[in-house]
Amino acid sequence: MAGRYAETTSVSSEQSRMSIERVLTDHGADTVAAVTGRGEARIMFEMAGRRIMFRLTLPDRNAREFTHTPSRGTPRSTTARAEAYEQAVRQRWRALYLVIRARLEAVEAGIETFEDAFLAHVVLPTGETVGEATAPAIAEAYAGRPMPALLPGTGTR
Prior knowledge:
With 157 residues, the protein is an alpha+beta fold. Helix content is 43%, strand content 15%. It has helices at 13-26, 64-67, 78-108, 114-118, 130-142; strands at residues 31-37, 40-47, 50-57. A hairpin with a 2-residue loop joins strand 2 (40-47) and strand 3. The radius of gyration is 19 Å and the shape is globular. The chain starts with 12 loop residues before the first helix and ends in a 15-residue tail after the last helix.
């Protein structure tokens, strides 16, 4: 089984955040902001006439994956706990960098439009993202309704 992207990265969270800011400004972002607190980080930027926000959920420092070893389940030392936690945070920041960069590259290559690439993360005047605002309606649309065939004419759902 493949591991998580960048699970062993040595790139610091700060370096990844700076890489995100740099790739955004290189692709024309007008304003870029990063905020961390309350178990999450947010990257916000304005580009193509839209305000975009990515939320990065940070792991719980007290989760068993950090307090105990994965193989034997024995308690880790305070130092080992901190190292395991920091590694998980570095991995998440690196993955966020990959996501944002890939979307920008897809837009630049003409694979999709800016709106399509970032639609779920567009901030509405209410302060919520399009994804947050539409998720309940999407769940309701799927509830109890069969999906059409994946390939027309196959009858396979």
